[in-house]
Amino acid sequence: MTEVEKGPLGRRRGRGARERILSASQHLFRDQGINRTGMDQLCAEAQVSKRTAYQHFTSKDELVAEYLRRFDPHVMPEVFGRTDLTPRERLLAAFDMPASTPLCPYIAAAVELHDPQHPAAQYARDYKTAIAARLTETAREAGATDPEQLGEQLALLLDGASARTRVLNRESFPTAAAIAAVLIDNAIPSSSARQPSDDRGTTGSAPVPVGGR
Amino acid sequence: MTEVEKGPLGRRRGRGARERILSASQHLFRDQGINRTGMDQLCAEAQVSKRTAYQHFTSKDELVAEYLRRFDPHVMPEVFGRTDLTPRERLLAAFDMPASTPLCPYIAAAVELHDPQHPAAQYARDYKTAIAARLTETAREAGATDPEQLGEQLALLLDGASARTRVLNRESFPTAAAIAAVLIDNAIPSSSARQPSDDRGTTGSAPVPVGGR
What we know:
The structure is a homodimer of 213-residue chains. The first copy, chain A, is mostly helical and 213 residues long. Chain A has helices at 11-32, 39-46, 50-56, 60-71, 77-80, 87-93, 105-112, 119-141, 147-168, 173-187. Chain A is elongated. Chains A and B meet through α7, α8, α9 and α10 of A and α7, α8, α9 and α10 of B.
């Protein structure tokens, strides 16, 4: 059934169209929003016909979902893949966002798409759950007493920083990083920490070191 | 210049139209978004002519700004006006959101309106600054060592809870409340707290009680 755009490169030209559409969606959705970007504009920007576009994506909804799936498929590997850092340092590194990082596209999609059953809204939910799972796993490696709780808390801080940066039009990640440092200090018994122990009482149960992966 | 809708009640009918438009904007913007709600639909819902609508609001942008100004003009009086609570309890009460509270409309507007100079985006920024100021003022009354820092941190948590509730389609305010409790405990020396002191060391400088209003 797949019909490709006519062109000297045949099938390769067809694949190029798909990439061009996704590339156009990346900057148009970010710069003007999902709802204000129509298929006409996407096609013009990608230099493909609407017929071709609908051969690659059955609907705009499907394109929006694919745009999100493409955005960060490996869930922050630039943070969680850093073997040069201790797990505790990786938790903090998640808050080192470059200045002017645009609003998180998963939050943007969930805000713009009012239907929680929209395929893109479902993917946004999966992604946000995956980020919390990555943080939880790293919190466990760092020896947190309740890694699930810390993971979910840090995930909420990331979302808060992204949303608040957008509303205030001013960086909020440093604020979130400061909160994260407090939570990590509270959740990870000081004997697990890298700095010399200050010997103060911890928040409760004894440290439970869990083997790294 | 103000021309009112023709009707048996004359001027009063004109004022009614303004309220009906604002009322329609409240539920349409919340349920389907700002960008997907056109003036035609707003007018149909409010049962006013477009001519009348433009007599009350020079543009949709102005209507969106007024919709936000109307939403919570006194900045959470149901929390900050509670004289039956201690300042510390008021800080925590800010996180007692009823289940199914819709996404914060100021975040929604900032996400949907990509221009930070849009009058509604400016108002959203002012509102978010006002919330942080209210929290700061309350943190100062509660004896926080750095009330500005605590106020901004708690404001970020509120934004994170609202955004994350939307993305996950599941309540995140309890997570934010748990973080808030940790931050408040860390920022407010235990001698200021209501519960019996556990006599552990505080985070630094002595309590600086500041006169409440």
